[in-house]
Amino acid sequence: MNNVTDSFVFLGHWPSAESFGVNTNILATNLINLSVVIGVLIFFGKGVLSDLLDNRKQRILNTIRNSEELRGRAVEQLEKARARLRKIEIEADQFRVNGYSEIEREKMNLINSTYKTLEQLENYKNETIYFEQQRTINQVRQRVFQQALQGALGTLNSCLNNELHLRTINANIGMFGALNEITD
Question: Burial level of 149, CB count in 10 A (0-12/13-18/19+)?
């Protein structure tokens, strides 16, 4: 250890170079060599190291700039997507509301149509019943008239003799002839 401190203490004191020889003090020579190498590296490597650091700095700045641009575009696309989503949600709500109102309108139309159909069916039923009543009444009238006619013919046939029968026919023919002359 004494040699190490001696080499630092006596750095300012160099014996004049009377002879050239090999210094066997490893610590003293390493320290000198190391400081020479570091000095040479700093002197010559300063530009290279500075260029390397500048290049690295520019790549990092470019990457940051590109990342910021990408982030800006992503934020812009996200805002567009959110706006489109809001628009679609509003349209979906409108379709839902319109769908419900359309369903209610169709339901009311169906109910009204069903009531009208039932009303028409009721009218057809009433008309059919009235028609059947009239037909039945007409049939009964015809039967009654036929029976009355048959009864009258039977009574007339039993009451009429040939002479009375011929006079009735002649009277009817005369009335028919008189009607014929009036219409001509």
Answer: exposed
Can you give the pTM of this predicted structure? Answer: 0.37
pLDDT digits (tens, 9 = 90+) for 157-169: 777 677 777 888 8
Whether residue 8 has pLDDT greater than 60: no
Domain assignments of the chain as residue spans, ordered by start: 28-140
Query: CA 172, CA 178: separation in Å to the nearest integer?
Result: 10
Residue 184: Cβ-neighbour burial (10 angstroms; 0-12, 13-18, 19+) = exposed
Q: What is the largest CA-CA distance in the chain?
A: 203
Residue closest to 121 by CA, chosen among 113, 107, 134, 133 = 113
The average confidence (pLDDT) of the chain is: 82
Q: What is the pLDDT of residues 137-164, one digit of tens each?
A: 999 999 998 998 888 888 777 776 777 7
Both tokens of 166, joined, read 């011929």
* Phi then psi dihedrals of residue 71, to 5 deg: -65, -40
**Cβ-Cβ contacts under 8 Å for 29 (sequence gap 6 or more):** 23
Tokens of 109: 């139309």
φ and ψ of 105, to 5 deg: -65, -45
Mean pLDDT confidence for 36-43:
84
Structure token pair of residue 22: 């090999």
